[in-house]
Design brief:
heterodimer, A: 196 residues, mainly alpha, B: 309 residues, globular, NADH dehydrogenase activity (chain B), membrane (chain B), NAD (chain B), NADH-quinone oxidoreductase subunit H (chain B), transmembrane (chain B)
Chain lengths: 196, 309
């Protein structure tokens, strides 16, 4: 009973916060309305008994939204995102698409012939879900993960202008890195270094 | 792990409040000693309580076109996140909620502080407090990864994410003995999480108080009190994770937990007074270049040891 009430409360709250994303006029408030919506979804996942997944959603989304707020406010076209703005473009089209999607999905819930539940939930739902998703493809996924990670590292290595030789000298002997901005970030000072 | 009685929900905030007040008093005594011991010890130790009374009656300051909603939400979230994180703390063998995924719960709740400090800095529409908020995000990005590896290492050794299970796994040898790197990194990131000690750049003096700069009255009390609470909870979590939790001879389990927590807190508060504030970009580089590889190595050692035995 309590679970059902909570499920509806979080469900409605998730939709309301999601709607607020398009009603609020401040970049920061929009970002945190989206975060609130995600947190409500995480609560729904927790109510389904998937503790690990629900908490990981909380963890990832808070980090992600804070970083997104920082970047969006930095790169918005109006200074620091401080001027009133709106999150929607092509209002009529966007509205019809989103309302249409909501209606189709909502209708689907009532029209689909849902199967009866067979058996009880597993003792460890997260493990069961992981096995179902990853089981036979575990080796593929692990290889893929390694390749992806190597790609990220290689891309950063290739695209960075300042490597360790720029920072610590050609023989890597410098005790203090020569940085235009301390901490190993910032542009290359070619005019100071001469030809290579 | 015994069945948790319902009254523990009410006991937890009281216990945390008492420990927090004690920690603040200890810090005040250290500060007075560093300044040449002005006033009687009892007067020095109760100074924080008088400060609380002062903040309670101070009128709130407001700023022009402040984002009131985000500001209040941010300020309030700091103590709330600390309290929620504390739910999985086993106080002498019984946590309020010994969740299956307690370690993940703890981490998820403390991450709420990221959003809280950033919005608290953004809210007042003032440059210095905004810079403070940004500094905390930079600091968070730098400490969070080593912090997670430290947490994972303890969970790997115990083979469970349940905090009670991690304590049980230390009935023989405490984890601090064979994962010292994870322990030290955990303590570092615990301080960074509460933007305390060498990691207090987000509320630094060079920013006139940073994220807390525009806060006054009750707001200030809630935000800075919540920060102390974060420090207490993070330090208290080091006990079940690395220091054997309630295990120990002679004394009852709850007393062992308390003694160890007090020792960790005293160490952190004392250390914070010994070191100057770390500059953000230096900490970021140190965290990525030194701490992350070290904690990965520590996790590897522990994983191999777990697989081998």
């Amino acid at each position: 009973m309590v679970t059902t009430v909570l499920f509806w409360v979080f469900g409605v709250a998730a939709v309301v916060f999601g709607f607020l994303v398009f009603r609020l006029d401040s970049m920061a408030q929009v970002t945190f309305a989206l975060l609130a919506s995600f947190l409500c979804v995480a609560a729904e996942v927790l109510l389904l008994g998937l503790g690990y997944l629900g908490l990981v959603i909380v963890l990832m989304m808070v980090m992600e939204m804070v970083i997104m707020a920082v970047f969006m406010i930095m790169y918005m076209m109006n200074p620091a995102g401080l001027m009133p703005m709106a999150m929607y473009h092509n209002k009529a089209g966007a509205m019809s698409i989103s309302v249409g999607t909501f209606v189709v999905l909502g209708a689907g819930i009532f029209l689909v012939d849902w199967p009866e539940r067979a058996g009880g939930p597993p003792a460890e739902p997260t493990v069961a879900l992981g096995t179902a998703l990853m089981g036979p493809q575990m080796l593929t996924m692990m290889t893929l993960g390694l390749v992806l990670f190597a790609t990220i590292v290689a891309t950063v290595m290739l695209s960075t202008q300042r490597g360790r030789y720029d920072r610590f000298g050609d023989d890597l002997r410098a005790r203090r890195p020569e940085d235009p901005v301390p901490g190993g970030v910032g542009p290359q000072r070619t005019e100071m270094r001469g030809p290579r | 792990m015994t069945e948790t009685p319902l009254w523990s929900v009410l006991v937890l905030p009281v216990v945390l409040a008492v420990i927090t007040v004690g920690t603040i008093a200890f810090d005040a005594v250290l500060a007075a000693r560093a300044a040449g011991a002005v006033g009687a010890p009892s007067q020095v130790a109760t100074a924080p309580l008088r400060e609380v009374a002062r903040l309670l009656v101070t009128q709130r300051r407001t700023t022009v076109t402040a984002d009131g909603v985000l500001w209040r939400v941010g300020v309030l979230t700091v103590p709330v996140a600390a309290l929620l994180a504390a739910l999985v703390l086993p106080l002498g063998g019984a946590a309020v909620a010994d969740l299956d995924v307690g370690v993940v719960w703890f981490n998820a709740m403390e991450i709420l502080a990221w959003a809280a400090v950033w919005t608290a800095g953004w809210g007042p529409n003032a440059p210095l407090s905004l810079v403070g908020g940004y500094r905390f995000v930079a600091q968070g990005l730098a400490y969070e990864l080593p912090h997670m590896f430290a947490l994972i290492t303890a969970a790997t050794a115990a083979g469970t994410l349940r905090v009670g299970g991690i304590v049980e796994a230390q009935s023989g040898v405490w984890f601090v003995v064979w994962m010292p790197v994870a322990f030290v990194v955990y303590l570092l990131s615990a301080m960074a999480m509460a933007f305390w000690g060498p990691f207090d750049a987000p509320v630094g003096r060079d920013l006139a108080g940073g994220a807390a700069g525009e806060l006054s009255g009750v707001d200030r009390l809630v935000f800075l009190g919540g920060r102390w609470l974060l420090l207490v909870v993070a330090a208290a979590m080091a006990v079940p994770l690395f220091l054997g939790g309630s295990h120990g001879p002679v004394l009852p389990p709850w007393l062992w937990t308390l003694v160890k927590t007090a020792a960790v807190l005293a160490g952190l508060v004392w250390l914070a007074r010994r070191f100057p504030t770390v500059r953000m970009e230096r900490f970021a580089e140190f965290a990525w270049v030194v701490l992350v590889p070290l904690t990965v190595l520590q996790a590897l050692v522990v994983s191999v040891a777990v697989l081998a035995w």
